[in-house]
Amino acid sequence: MVESVPMTREGYNKIKAEINRMENEEMPMIVQKIAEAREEGDLKENAEYHAQRENQGMLMAKINELRDKIARASIIDVSSLPKDEVVFGCTVTVEDVAYGDEEQFTLVGAGDEDYDSGKILVTSPFGQGLVGKKVGETAEVDVPAGKLKFKILKIEFNL
Predict the structure, then answer these.
(1) 67-83: per-residue pLDDT in tens?
(2) Out of 3.40.50.1980, 3.40.920.10, 1.10.287.180, 3.30.70.3450, which CATH number does the structure's domain 5-75 have?
(3) CA distance 136 to 152
(4) Is the pTM for the entire model greater than 0.85?
(5) Are strands 90-96 and 146-157 parallel, antiparallel or unpaired?
(6) Are 8 and 69 a contacting pair, CB within 8 Å?
(7) What's residue 5's pLDDT?
(8) Burial bucket for residue 149 (CB in 10 Å: 0-12, 13-18, 19+)
(9) Is the domain 78-157 a CATH 3.10.50.30 member?
């Protein structure tokens, strides 16, 4: 079964723009560099040629990965989701039960994630551990170091 990738319309558009940029700006530059390197002669020992071919392959892999996300995209209308539990699009304030630290996360879809600003993928193990919880409940999240417990303090929507 193909797993859908939840995202907002903005996240979808951001990924489409990134694909467009890669295909229409980066790829032509790499193709040009390959052509220039090919003109230098013997391809067997042409390091520049091989490096650019490798760059081309890596860029194509990135493009294909983003195309796959777009193909499996499920655009979510955040305004239709429940407001009393942790769901896609909400900002949740949690307390680490073990240490008492408060943290805030926004659960987002592909294309919107930004871990430095607390925007985490709803499909990540951490995001999945929080989904469905209500204020006052405790979420257990599996991480490589073991299980972490977080108490849900506040759920907000920035619509």
Answers:
(1) 999 999 988 887 778 88
(2) 1.10.287.180
(3) 5
(4) no
(5) antiparallel
(6) no
(7) 83
(8) middle
(9) yes
